Amino acid sequence: MSASEQDHYEEEFDDAVDEEYLVESEVAEEEHDDENEDFMDDEEEGDQDEYGGFHGVREVEGDDSVMEIVDDSVQGFFDHKEPVYTVAMHPKENDIIVSGGGDDKSHIWRADTGEKLVTLEGHTDSVSSVAFSVSGEYVASGGMDGKVRVWKTNTGELCTQVDGPDEIIWMDWHPKGNVLLAGATDSTIWMWAMPSGKFMNIFNGHAAPVTAGQFTADGKHIVTVAEDATFIVWDPKSAVANVKLTGADGRFHSEPIICVSTDKESNLALTGSADGTAKLLNLHNGNIIASLENHSDSVESVSFCDVLPLAATGSVDGKVSVWDIQTHRVRHTLKHDDAVIKVQFASNSVNLVTCSADRTVRLWDTRSGECLKKWMGHQDAVLDFAISNNGDTVVTGSDDGTCLIFKA
């Protein structure tokens, strides 16, 4: 790439994530609130009694009979009929949900009523990732067909479809503008300006599927990990790898890295690996601050707490470890009855939500280690969840083909 081309890409990136642009787009969205009434109706928000769900026991049709299962959910969505791999909540209107799954479709629906608002079609293979833009104006779906499709949230109108990567594993929107990042099985990461779909950069540096990645909270860096046991911190403007760690370093991971998270201050990264360890890293210089070792199997998910120096790791061994990231010691060991699939702290809270192949979702107070809620209702592994801004609502997606809403 020539110097002039690089300057051009950097200018485009700055324009796409400019904060003044974001503010203007939010004002425009507010001016058109009347047009969004069908999708963004808040009148039905209220306490749990208004959700009209199935709290208690629900009948479920099996192959040969009807069985009853304990169901703590207050609402649900059942149109997928195939495994639901990914769910997301609208960043402002938390009752607006998008889910994607093995039916090759995404659906936008309401958490308070279970009503389907629109079906987003066009993929020819499973939808592996869905995500709302930072303002909520757009929603993206990424599929195992290698396609990324972006839609207007309030109408379901298709804005663009982009191709380029192989099977999409994950996506992430820039925290300050309409720039979308996607990682794929072909070892690449792609970045586009949305909703135009204009290509901005491709990131090459891994040699195996890019299992996880994200923009840092300040939007100045991209962090990715891969099955080749590499960790890379990128400059999003230039696609230059500023930091790279590999398995050749005996202190680092020796097996595929499954997950990564960064802290609110954009200074630290936490990686989880199939080798059963998590590594706490300085993302600016790549220094390995600590090796967090309390699991006997693959670490599948990691998360930082926004309000205390805590982090959580979840493993196939059924354990969730809560770590003090200042002393690097385990503060609590929490247990599921089967593999832990995802852990995530609620925003600006010490509460942690976890889901598992044991079919449950659990809410924990990480200060005391107490399990505040154990939610049941799914018939198979819970594959993904999203948490509302105030932390009182969790939406799940499961291998059983359903999405459920749970209230704290």
Automatic annotation (TrEMBL):
The keyword Metal-binding does not apply. WD repeats lie at residues 77-119, 120-161, 171-202, 203-235, 292-333, 333-374, 375-408. Residues 8-50 have a biased composition (Acidic residues). The keyword Repeat applies. It is found in: Cytoplasm. PROSITE patterns: WD_REPEATS_1, WD_REPEATS_2, WD_REPEATS_REGION. Keywords: Cytoplasm, Repeat, WD repeat. Pfam families: WD40. Its main location: cytoplasm. Residues 1-56 are annotated as: Disordered. InterPro entries: WD40/YVTN_repeat-like_dom_sf, WD40_PAC1, WD40_repeat_CS, WD40_repeat_dom_sf, WD40_rpt, WD_repeat_multifunction. GO terms for cellular component: cytoplasm. This is WD40 repeat-like protein. It comes from Umbelopsis vinacea.
